[in-house]
Amino acid sequence: MDFLIFILAMLIGGVAAWQAFSWYYAKKFKTPKQDVATESHVLLERIEKVFKVVLAEGYFTEIYDHKSKKDFFGIFKTNSKALVVAKAKVSVGYDFAKMRFRRDHNSRTLVIEQFAEPEIISIDTNYKFYDINQGLLNKFDNEDYTEILAEAKKLMQEKAQESDLPQIAQKQIQLMMQQLCASVGWQLEHEKVLEPLKTVQVITDQHQ
């Protein structure tokens, strides 16, 4: 666990340094450089043991056309439909608790033994209903709305999985860790070559 904190400290320091560098460049180099190690310790005291880091974000919009039919004892049927416009902010990153590292002090090398897959850390969603058409005997109730929103959210997750966000996050984490190691005079090595991404894990959020 202590080693995970060490890695997280390096990563958070890199994020802070990256943002500081962007602001520094925009101000035409008028701001002094920040100490990565000091920044890491300060941030660690604030966030305690949070190991999930967001490295890529994307915005998605999906139009979901829901239709349902209800059969009343085979005598007649009623139809209900609703058009849902779903918008979502999807954050993809890594859970460092699922990674394994080891340090070689002699060669000053950080070796990645197990590299986790990128995950959907959160999905912040916003839904709007349009063109609601329901029969007198087939009105939408709370359960129906919950089901509709769940189906719409599933579509957003699938869309995020098929996007380039996982690949962007994977490139970002490797680049960031390489730069972090280099900044303290260490090297980064993988015990095995990373395989191409096929899927991305999904973390269900509570934002609806």
From TrEMBL:
Pfam families: DUF4230
InterPro entries: DUF4230
Domain of life: Bacteria
Name of the protein: DUF4230 domain-containing protein
